[in-house]
């Protein structure tokens, strides 16, 4: 297999020159550029797609950035983006930021020096304060194709796909209210995240129909992982043992809440009715199966990819901002209150 050293030797230039050329970090005379491109093509270097990208100035690589790939939501979305992209000959680079803002900035900035066709940024930690806004603004100014999924986009700079978490949490809470529950607790997501803030507003809107005093509403800030669900459930029940219904914002936190209730000997739904935001296979297979309000994740990935593809090829969009509506899946974890 040819190496970058082979390319440099064939083109008659330094290895560093080839490296910087591939990373778009150097301006070369056109004659030198053509020598490098021809050497890449002749040697079938890494593989031939690189040469084709350099010649056509088009890339076959997309970047998808997620906060945590272990989340069922993010993994489903990434899988369906990759499936749609593969049909059109695109390869996908996945960046998992581990909910680390510095890592997110570093990943985006480092990849911008490569031949990237476009970016899909899924969610973010602290997108309320928009810590990566300067990077996104620069990407927009340079015409780099970017699509957002569930990420704060106050000035609608970028096309986006949004899950209506306000409506989802409203529906979940109203379901418990219809079942006769009044002492309803809510474990939120990380409230630095825009979608989690919207979900909290949905809970409060539903509870306002039965409780005029917002300070009486039972809310504990949680997060998006299993451990946060466990700890937040324990905290909520220590402070509010009267709770008969519990709404949990994220998929993994829901399973954490379920595990904690089981560990504490609390029967679902006899003692507490449990409902989560986000539909996953895990919710279907535990006993009892969990009631959820969820979204079509496959549709999310497909729509986001389609928006990005339209940006890349310069095609107009019917909708720049797509809001997906939730659906309730009633199972055995909620019941009428006697």
Instruction: Give average pLDDT, whole number.
Output: 89
The CATH H-level homologous superfamily of the largest domain: Response regulator
Total helices: the number is: 13
CATH topology of the largest domain: Rossmann fold
What gap, in angstroms, lies between the N and C termini?
72 Å
Strand order of the largest sheet: 2-1-3-4-5-11
Given the C-alpha coordinates, what overall shape results?
Answer: elongated
> Briefly, what CATH class of the largest domain?
Alpha Beta
Secondary-structure element sequence?
HHHHEHEHEHEEHEHEHEHEHEHEE
The CATH level-2 architecture of the largest domain is identified as 3-Layer(aba) Sandwich
Low-confidence stretches: none
- Count of domains: 3
Strand content: 15-25%
What structural class results from the helix and strand content? alpha/beta
For the secondary structure, the number of strands is 12
């Amino acid at each position: 297999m040819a190496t970058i050293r082979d390319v440099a030797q064939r083109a008659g230039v330094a290895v560093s020159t080839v490296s910087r050329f591939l990373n778009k970090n150097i301006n070369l005379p056109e004659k030198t550029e053509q020598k490098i491109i021809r050497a890449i093509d002749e040697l079938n270097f890494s593989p031939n797609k690189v040469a084709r990208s350099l010649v056509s100035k088009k890339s076959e690589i997309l970047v998808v950035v997620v906060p945590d790939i272990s989340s069922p939501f993010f993994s489903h979305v990434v899988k369906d983006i990759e499936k749609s992209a593969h049909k059109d000959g695109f390869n996908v680079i996945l960046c998992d930021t581990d909910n680390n803002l510095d890592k997110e900035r570093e990943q985006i900035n480092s990849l911008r020096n490569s031949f990237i066709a476009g970016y899909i940024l899924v969610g973010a930690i602290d997108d309320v304060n928009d810590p990566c806004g300067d990077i996104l603004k620069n990407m927009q100014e340079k015409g780099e194709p970017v699509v957002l999924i569930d990420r704060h986009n106050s000035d609608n700079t970028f096309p986006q796909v949004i899950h209506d978490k306000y409506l989802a949490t409203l529906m979940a809470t109203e379901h418990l209210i219809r079942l006769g529950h009044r002492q309803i607790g809510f474990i939120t997501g990380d409230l630095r995240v825009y979608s989690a803030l919207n979900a909290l507003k949905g809970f409060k809107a539903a509870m306002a129909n039965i409780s005029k005093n917002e300070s009486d509403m039972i809310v504990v800030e949680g997060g998006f992982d299993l451990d946060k669900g466990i700890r937040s459930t324990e905290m909520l029940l220590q402070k509010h043992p009267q709770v008969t219904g519990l709404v949990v914002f994220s998929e993994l936190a829901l399973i954490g809440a379920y595990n904690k209730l089981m560990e504490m000997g609390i029967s679902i739904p006899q003692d507490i009715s449990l409902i989560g935001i986000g539909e996953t296979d895990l919710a279907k297979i535990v006993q009892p199966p969990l009631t959820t309000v969820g979204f079509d994740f496959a549709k999310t990935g497909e729509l986001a990819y389609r928006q990005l593809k339209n940006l890349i090829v310069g095609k107009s969009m019917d909708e720049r901002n797509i809001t997906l509506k939730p659906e309730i899946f009633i199972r055995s974890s909620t019941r009428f209150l006697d």
